[in-house]
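User: If only I could read backbone structure tokens as easily as an amino acid sequence. Those tokens are not coordinates but codes from a learned vocabulary of shapes. Could you go through the record with me and say what the backbone is doing? Here is the record:
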Amino acid sequence: MKYIHAFFILFLLASCDTLDVQPFQQLPDSRAINDAGSARAALLGTYSSVQNYYQLNFPVLGYLPGDNVRFNGTLNQFNQIDQNALSADNVIITETWTQIYQAINSANNVIAALPGLTDPLLTATEKNQLLGEAYFVRALGYFDLGRGWGGVPLVLKPTRSAADGQGIKRSTLAQTYDQVLADLIEAERLLPDGTTRNRAVKNTARALRARLHLYRGQWTEAENYATQVLASAAYRLVTPYRAFSAAPFGSTESVLELTYSIADQNSQWNNWFPSALGGQYTLQPTPEFTTLVNRADVGGNRNSLLATVRVGTTDFVYGNLYNRAAQRDDPAYIIRVAELYLIRAEARARQDKLTDGLADLNAIRSRAGLSAVTVTSQSNLLLAIENERRIEFAFEAHRWFDLVRTGRAGEVLGLTDQRKWVFPIPFNDIAADPDLIQNPGY
């Protein structure tokens, strides 16, 4: 995985002075899938590609443009995100777009190869499982592209040469989300039951589908699919809040988390920890968030997201969600049970099921050690859910996307230019492919 990542960085740097570049969504994945072993390896490679973009880049795009996290450094690519002043040549934007399409292309290779593969060591059950996981990864990739960039080119076949991807125009956001739904339906059909937490099973597809319906404003469906997952005894909140992110990982709260190891590291901690603890301290909780999470009636035991180290007479407050500095194996948290409660709470509130929505909200508050709240109007309940999501998922890839999908980024962040609510298509892709149209405002 790290060699693939390094290749894209070198490719990007080498191509900065020329327009004769290959669009990143057309980069080839030439791994052959011709037997059971290579099929399994290809699927693991697909997850590895998802690890690449969730290791740092995509979470940064989810929290840094919001109001929980600020950048403390000089790197322009981070400062642009923090200040909501992105350019089309931003390195993080380009890397993330590249990495997501690499994951999609890996999934496309599995989807294309497996149906015709015959190997007595690959049973029909396992073939379905591998196919279902590939469909899930492709759905996740296009969902993340959609919520970040709007409608994107839908590449549904392996791209092994530049010609394979040419002429694919951008789809609308609705069409992109339609593709996500189609892939999730197929994934759920093919995937096994079970509770594997670092690979997709049926309930993983249902959980992502609940999130998709929430983003699309399809409240009945969002409630239904969140309920299906929460009905399983295998998925439960853990207490206290900190327990879901403490080793050993893979708690009952995890619907999907991506696993790292000392040989395949998650370096998020390095950006959060102060230099006294070996980190760079470039990502910091904002003073406003620090005040909120330390309030007994707001943060509760979620103040464990923060820690303090004293150097001389100065206290440095830092984010502590990713804290395995020695092992470097913090998971990337993709979907948690807490999110499903708050998805259902919001979906119910939107349908005027205030009592039921409030019960889901208070389940999250109770786990945080907070007293139950009572609200009597839909608008107040929706605001309470928004505020709860802000604290609950502070350093995960949610806050920015929540404010955009609810149309609240202008009021909360002061970002009234809605053209800036989506990211720019990378400059290299625009320059190389005349069929790609840039997002307005970039």
